[in-house]
User: Fold this.
Amino acid sequence: MWCVRLWLVALAVAIAATPSHAQDRINVVASFSILSDFARNVGGDRVNVTSLVGPNGDVHVYTPPPQDAKKIAEARLVIINGLGLEGWLPRLLQSSGSKAPIITATKGIAPLKLGSDADPHAWQSVADAKIYVANIRDALVQADPADAGYFREHAEHYLAELNALDREVRSAVAQIPPERRKVISTHDAFGYFAKEYGVEFIAPLGVSTETEPSARDIAGIIGQIKAEKIPAVFLENISDDRLIRRIAAETGAKVGGTLYSDSLTDEKGPAPTYIDMVRHNIKALTSALDHQ
Ligand code: ZN
Assistant:
């Protein structure tokens, strides 16, 4: 009895001592799951983060449901990738009537080009992901100056984790013999990873998942796999896997597993956070490429 009473007192003290931020959390809307993970890491318990495109969703071909306009109308801050990724966004913003600031998380990143299109997938380079996080930190500080110190501290901690992750990627790639640093992925989501870490990616779908590859494109890739002895092809969580399986069957390249490109998984999947996603991808790449 005494023990229970003491416990209740302790509980009451704990509740009184916990600063209640539930009511002054700011609503943040991110266009897709990778941005919302960054915002949660910086914003901690001072933000409510909502992702429009959910786990394993494809942000290239998203059709916003009517409730998205409401989510944006209630947001204090909207975070987007930019570089042409969210083609569906301008109409949604307009229909929401929102006056919330819109921050482009890729601001300051030198965009890669594929033909005339900008390649939007800059988050696949951890070095660039750090620029996203700094932009999100600055936007949160502007949106909620009272919590500036909190946001800066969380960002600093998370940026240190990203520095460690960047070193992990470099040492993982260093294990792969240089002539085997070539893979096929479904769509061109790894250009920034390729540039930063020196693994070549070839993809039948281009930078968006919107267009189907032609028979000629596929024949070209099959020829290239054979000629360059590309060891492995990869599936992606956001794309149909039939094309990649067909290419594997026709070339004898092995299916090296699934790469998480444009979307995180839910809690039960292998990539519920950005850091988990990058670790999963480098493990899949090294285990498919580092042995003959
Ligand atoms: Zn993509």
